[in-house]
Give the backbone structure.
Amino acid sequence: MKTKVLLFGQLAEAAAPEMEIFDVRDTDQLVQEINKRFPALSSMHYRIAVNKNLITENTTITNTTTVALLPAFSGG
């Protein structure tokens, strides 16, 4: 199974703007795999969106899931 991951802002600069991760079942496993590939991301704060919805807990990933890692941001 392949999961498309989009990264934005400083996350994209530290890793890549887009990547594919294979054989993960949920967002916890996805984050572990990303941190293995790009150790710099493990110390960065970010939010996770699954299919354009921000999540706050571990979420199941399917073949059609798109995940986005969003850096900390503020409005004003």
Summary: The mean pLDDT is 92. The first strand starts at residue 2 and ends at 7. The two ends are 40 Å apart (CA to CA).
